[in-house]
Each structure stands twice: as structure tokens, then as C-alpha cells.
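Our preliminary data section would be incomplete without showing what the modeling component actually yields. Below, a chain of 133 amino acids is followed by its predicted structure, encoded as C-alpha cells that our downstream tools consume directly.
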Amino acid sequence: MRARAPLPRWGWAVAALAWAALIYWASSKPHPFPFLPTGLLELDELLHLLAYAVLGGLLVGPFLPRLGAARAVVAAAAIATTYGAADEWHQSFVPNRSADPKDLAADAAGAVLGAAAMAVALRVRRARASIRG
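Predicted structure:
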């Protein structure tokens, strides 16, 4: 029995685009999350790391079947980091926001971690399914 992918390739791409749109929306606001405690907002790099870990993880899905794990992680992380750089530039035009190299570093780290974690998770899932079948 062949393992069924959690999402088709186009589904991963749609999810990644939706997440990127959510990031863009949050970046367009001077105070995107007014309900968060002030102390958490001081951990801005952590929020960037988490947001781009999700983006990196979602971007692995379309690449993994064709490129293999290592190349899929590199491709996903490169795309997510490039998007992070564009997002930092975009934030420089938003009142009360700025472009910060530390945020971009957190974006890149999150993208790599998220992409690698998703690649491992999908490969483990696939390996378990092949053992059962």
C-alpha cells in the first residue's frame, strides 16, 4: 500500500501562499497584534523565527518529491529567506515599523529550521507507511 501525501503538491503551495499573505498582512500594520502582552512583543525575533519556520515548512512540500530532502530544504529556506528580506524592506515603509537585520536573521533561521523539520517529518511518515505496506 502506497503512502498518501498529507497534501498534494499544489496544496502545499496554496498553504504557503496563504501563510505568506498572512505575514504580509501583519507586516502592513503598525501594531499587528495589540492583544499580545508587551513582554512578548519584545521577543520580536522569536515571532519572526516562528512565522518563517511555518513558511519554510510549508514550502518544503512542493519540492520534496522532486528534489529530495536536502535540496528541498535549501530551496524552501532560500525562498522563505528571500521573502523575509522583501518583507523587511516592506516594513521600512510602515509607520512604527522598521527593517531590522536581526529580524531577517531570525527569518532565515526559522526558515531553515522549519524546512528541515518538515522534511524529516514527511520522510519519517513516508518510511513508516512503507514499512506497514
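The chain has a mean pLDDT of 85. Helices lie at 9-27, 38-41, 44-67, 69-91, 101-132. Preliminary results of this kind motivate Aim 1 of the renewal.
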